[in-house]
Specification:
homodimer; 2 domains; about 5% strand; elongated; DNA-binding
Chain lengths: ~140, ~140
Amino acid sequence: MPQQNSTIPGLAVALRISVMRLARRLRAQRSDTSLSLTQLAALAALDRRGQMTPTELAQHEKVQPPSMTRVIAALEERGLVRRTPHPTDRRQQLVELTTDGRRLLAADRRRREAWLSLRLRELTPQERETLRQASLILDRLSQS
Amino acid sequence: MPQQNSTIPGLAVALRISVMRLARRLRAQRSDTSLSLTQLAALAALDRRGQMTPTELAQHEKVQPPSMTRVIAALEERGLVRRTPHPTDRRQQLVELTTDGRRLLAADRRRREAWLSLRLRELTPQERETLRQASLILDRLSQS
DNA sequence: CTGGGTCATTACTTTTGCTAACGATATCAG
DNA sequence: CTGATATCGTTAGCAAAAGTAATGACCCAG
């Protein structure tokens, strides 16, 4: 350890390395459903936040609207999302998950979580409790 | 919250989301030295593990050798890495960081940690202690 | 000393994102 | 009410980055 863990910069170093490494491991566990990462992310966003317009989805995923057009087209072609007209504005559309989309997303999530659940089972209950609390703190860190 | 946080799968869901989100935030903090993420990752790998051959580096970063050839060429052009002949096998090369490469990497790391340190300062000492312990547990999770 | 395997590279293709421009629709000033 | 302006999604064209196939130099077992 180059820096002491008891200082704030020391904690920042350690936490950054730990979080980035675990994130890499988790990412590597993703099932290759031949969906690109962006496609998967769009699907997940629709699942979490419900139906959205293409532009909203693009902003949420930090992608330009034309790129999202292609993502949506690909997802629609595979029957994972559905477009419906906007109730009051005929320029806009609403994109939402289909049952198939929800199913694929659940399967993918299950596979990624399987690896992590297995690892978590090897910990002591106290260690899991620490992670539970840490998870809440990490969320607050990300939001600020 | 779709799942309870008190079960192991529930913890797996929560932890995965927390870790991935914080990792995205940390990644976004990277200084835009106009190096691609892959280039930066290769540089970091050389820093962590010392000199490597292009093929080793490609395997480590999960890209194909031709892609790594290009990454190395770009880094070499900027004077961040240096190639040296392999001592016993003339087919191979060894790639290592230059002083400039090490310096750029350190600057980038500092910038990312500055953001994190700032956030950590807003926490209570108890919360920081929780994160300290969690960091060690996360490391063990990644290694297994 | 030779034939098969390995390493890095080159050439080409695919994927994925961007900007610019456009048609359809909405909204606002007057 | 109407002409100007803005917004939404899309198309077209381009650039970056990664992948596959093929190649030349080199190593090594027999």
